[in-house]
Design a protein that fits this description.
This is Blue-light-activated histidine kinase. The protein has 867 residues and is of the alpha+beta class. It has six domains: 2-116, Beta-Lactamase (2-Layer Sandwich); 134-243, 2-Layer Sandwich (Beta-Lactamase), CATH 3.30.450; 259-359, Beta-Lactamase (2-Layer Sandwich), CATH 3.30.450; 391-499, PAS domain (Beta-Lactamase), CATH 3.30.450; 518-616 and 635-706, Heat Shock Protein 90; 723-864, PAS domain (Beta-Lactamase, 2-Layer Sandwich).
């Protein structure tokens, strides 16, 4: 604007005062060249006019002042007067009192003064803004009074109230003692008039009020009068954060410089911008060679794309860790673990990329060796665990507190625990289930097995115990206990129990055999006498008698030969029976009936069972069913799969038709063999009862103690192998629903082939035990057994057609479920065979068994109705 230009021009010309005069009427009477230069108005433009017309912005103050001026009174006021070009000029109008008539008036141009004042004010404001933006505090010091004046920010730095009156000693006390000498030295140097008075220093203070430690930076100047310092002004800045950053940076620089990991940074274009000493050692390339260049020469060609992907991921803000390979100067590759991360700028975006590379070649090599060692150790551990578990010697490991920490399978069988039970097991909880006897046969506290002496550091030699496990099995053990010592400290104990049950049993058996030999020698004459008597009966001539007598003597000799071979060979159950009972067989008669599985017996079992059968047959010949002409003996054996612990071998000897039976008044050696020895030697039980109709003996022993499962007289001895039997069972199964037994009329007998292989029997439940009446027996069975058949009446006893009184028919009736048996059947000495038999229960009301339908398949391929 022109007004502004005029004001500047006037200021340049240093026009201070302009004098004009007013008439008695208050009109402008004179207007000189200076007034014209200031306003642009010429004299003819303003002469005779009212001065108030020149005031651009009238105010109440200007009205009062002009009124006083026209009346001849003194007046002084500031106003903006209008210039000819429309601009404004700031002036001060002043008139002195001259009575009642106006006179000379002076106008002082205030433009330069206002400009100077405005510039000073603006500069002050700019300084305040700058200090505020930089968090800088300002201060002034009157050195004569030692009084300090702090602005708000400086007061906050020191922890002082801005309104407080601050003296030197108050602030000096806040400076740390170790920093005070340097600070005072800098201020003292600034007080020397020979210098320019400037100073700069940094020191630590304890902020007033909370005692927080802060670093302070002071910059200022001392002012002098007559060669003496009189005041100081300056600024201060809290540089605590900067100091911490410097320390952190120094620490980081030390780490980067001394670490064994290569640390370098890349620009966003991929050029190296820093390269630490470890990178020089690792890659064999100096920082001078690398800075400003790409790292591609250090990346295997096949991994370039991977490196680019990692670089781009870091640029996008991801932190990446990757095991990969890099190249040394000589071209050799090595394994590295890369950690790549963005270095962010103030806006949070990636400004550069940092890379940490760790050479893991040695680590991977050691790790591979460690993995191989662990694999070998795992294999050895697995082998030792397998050996430990497979040992048939019970081994128990105790921890330091006496709890059971580990057991093998043999030990668990004794303790009565399972592999899935949590360990360690409190010894008291487990031992409470055992019954323990010492070598004298006395019952003792199971705590004797707790390895206490071994846990105390003592090696305990063999001790004998008889232990009855929770399952009821008895074992004789010789135990040894040793402490487990690691680094000289006892960490537990191990107890090894050698099972001497079999050895003791063999010793007992040897003793029994010696007694048996003596007993048999005494009985031999009785047996021969019985053979002689039975041979004499019914002999029609001397030659006939000699033949019968010779055959029986040879059978007796064969039984002795068979027993002599059982030391190393398994024995067929039927062969064993024939060896002991065969000399009592009468050709053409059905006095001895056999029915059972086609199995072979272990040597020990054959020996014990053979002795029992010998005693039973001897007693039967002397006093029982074989002592007359009409008595019968049924021998049946089977495997009970429904036993709780394990499948049980069951052998029955039942006599009928002999003289009335009475229990003996005393038990001789033979009775002892039958009742006790046979059962105990096979880890089972034997019962001998004397009902009036005939002696009954039952042996129950674990199948594993009796049957040689590797040798069976026929394959699949415990599951169906005949297609015809499988088809019959499928028909029955399809009709058996919701626990209801099917009826006979629901079975489509036309689908059962061949028809003449089927047997149907009615069950009479009116008597106990229920009786079986055979309604229909297939022609094949009749022909095979040589029975006499007239229409549907079968001339054969229930015992004969069942094969044994406790056979499949009885089981079918009792359980209401199918009964299957792979059995041996013998009618006479020259007529015997193996067969499969399947019996199925039927019912009229769906609940009680009222009929049985069955079928049999013989080993020679001929199928017949089940017997």
């Amino acid at each position: 604007m022109r007004g502004t230009a005029l004001s500047s021009a006037n200021a340049m010309q240093a026009v201070d005062y302009i004098t004009i005069s007013l008439s008695s009427k208050g009109e402008i009477a004179s207007w000189d060249a200076a007034a014209e230069a200031l306003t642009g108005f010429r004299a003819q433009d303003v002469m005779g006019g009212d001065i108030e017309h020149l005031v651009a912005v009238p105010t109440p103050q200007s009205h009062r002042a002009l009124a006083a001026l026209r009346a001849g009174f003194a007046a002084k006021f500031g106003a903006l007067i209008r210039c000819k070009d429309g601009g404004l000029v700031a002036v001060e109008i002043e008139a002195k009192a001259r009575g009642d008539a106006p006179g000379a008036i002076s106008l002082r141009d205030l433009t330069a003064e206002r400009l100077a004042s405005g510039a000073s004010r603006h500069a002050g404001e700019r300084l305040k803004l700058a200090l505020g933006a930089a968090a800088i505090g300002a201060y002034e010091i009157d050195l004569l009074t030692q009084r300090y004046q702090l602005d708000g920010r400086a007061s906050a730095i020191w922890g002082r109230d801005p309104t407080d009156s601050i003296c030197f000693s108050m602030l000096a006390d806040q400076v740390l003692d170790e920093d005070r000498p340097a600070a005072e030295g800098a201020l003292a140097a600034a007080s020397d008039p020979a210098g320019d008075g400037s100073y700069a220093t940094e020191f630590r203070i304890r902020r007033h009020g909370d005692g927080v430690l802060r670093w302070l930076s002071l910059r200022g100047r001392t002012f002098f009068e007559n060669g003496q310092p009189v005041s100081r002004i300056g600024v201060m800045l809290d540089v605590t954060q900067n100091r911490r950053l410097e320390e952190d940076n120094a620490h980081l620089a030390a780490i980067v410089g001394t670490t064994g990991d290569a640390i370098y940074s890349l620009t966003l274009d991929g050029a190296v911008r820093s390269w630490n000493p470890a990178a020089e050692r690792m890659f064999g390339v100096s920082s001078r060679e690398m800075i400003g260049k790409a790292e591609t020469a250090l990346i295997p060609p096949e991994l370039q794309s991977e490196a680019e992907a990692l670089f781009e991921a870091a640029k996008a803000g991801d932190i990446v860790r990757r095991e990969t390979k890099r190249l040394r100067r000589d071209g050799s590759s090595f394994d590295v673990l890369l950690s790549i991360a963005p270095m962010r700028g103030r806006n949070g975006d990636a400004a550069a990329i940092s890379v940490l590379a760790r050479d893991i070649s040695d680590e991977k090599r050691v790790l591979a060796q460690l993995e191989q060692a662990n694999a070998r150790m795992a294999q050895q551990t697995a082998e030792l665990d397998a050996v430990f578990e497979a040992l048939n010697v019970p081994v128990t490991v105790f921890n330091r507190d006496g709890a059971i920490a580990r057991t093998n399978a043999a030990a668990r069988a004794v303790w009565g625990v399972t592999p899935d039970m949590p360990q360690p097991l409190p010894f008291g909880d487990v031992a409470a289930q055992l019954s323990v006897r010492n070598s004298a046969g006395e019952t003792i506290d199971p705590a004797a097995l707790a390895a206490r002496r071994a846990l105390a550091g003592e090696s305990v030699g063999p001790q004998h115990y008889q232990i009855t496990s929770p399952s009821g099995l008895k074992h004789d053990f010789e135990t040894a206990e040793l402490p487990l010592i690691v680094d000289g400290a006892i960490t537990g104990a191990v107890a090894v129990w050698h099972d001497v049950t079999e050895a003791r049993r063999r010793d007992d058996q040897a003793s029994i055999l010696l007694r048996e030999l003596s007993h048999r020698s005494k009985n031999l004459l009785s047996v021969i006498e019985s053979i002689l008597r039975q041979s004499a009966k019914g002999s029609v001539s001397k030659d006939d008698f000699v033949a019968r007598f010779s055959d029986r003597l040879r059978a007796l000799a064969h039984s002795h030969d068979l027993l002599a071979k059982t030391n190393s060979l398994s024995v067929s159950m039927t062969d064993l029976i024939f060896s002991q009972v065969g000399h009592h067989w009468e050709p053409g008669q059905r006095r001895i009936m056999l029915s059972g599985l086609g199995v072979r017996l272990k040597p020990d079992a054959a020996q014990m069972i053979g002795m029992a059968l010998h005693e039973l047959s001897t007693n039967a010949a002397k006093y029982g069913a074989l002592s007359n002409a009409i008595g019968r003996v049924s021998i049946g054996w089977r495997v009970d799969h429904e036993a709780e612990a394990e499948p049980m071998f069951v052998l029955n000897w039942v006599e009928r038709g002999g003289p009335p039976v009475q229990a003996p008044e005393r038990a001789g050696f033979g009775t002892t063999v039958i009742q006790r020895v046979a059962g105990q030697s096979l880890r089972g039980t034997a019962s001998l009862i004397y009902p009036e109709e005939g002696v009954s003996w039952t042996l129950r022993a674990p199948r594993s103690s009796v049957i040689d499962t590797a040798q069976q007289d026929a394959p699949r001895a415990e599951r169906i192998r005949s297609p015809a039997l499988e088809k019959l069972q499928t028909l029955w199964t399809n009709l058996y629903r919701d626990g209801k037994l099917p009826r006979l009329d629901e079975l489509s007998l036309d689908d059962i082939e061949p028809q003449d292989h089927v047997i149907v029997a009615d069950v009479d439940n009116a008597i106990n035990p229920p009786a079986v009446r055979f309604v229909s027996v297939g022609k094949a069975l009749v022909d095979r057994m040589g029975l006499r058949r007239e229409c549907q009446d079968i001339e054969v006893s229930e015992t004969e057609i069942l094969g044994a009184e406790d056979g499949a028919y009885r089981r079918c009736i009792r359980s209401g479920r199918p009964a299957y048996e792979y059995a041996y059947f013998n009618l006479t000495q020259g007529r015997s065979f193996f067969f499969e038999r399947l019996l199925l229960p039927l019912s009229d009301d769906g609940q009680r068994v009222s009929r049985i339908i069955g079928m049999a398949s013989f080993d020679d391929g001929v199928s017949a109705g089940a017997n």
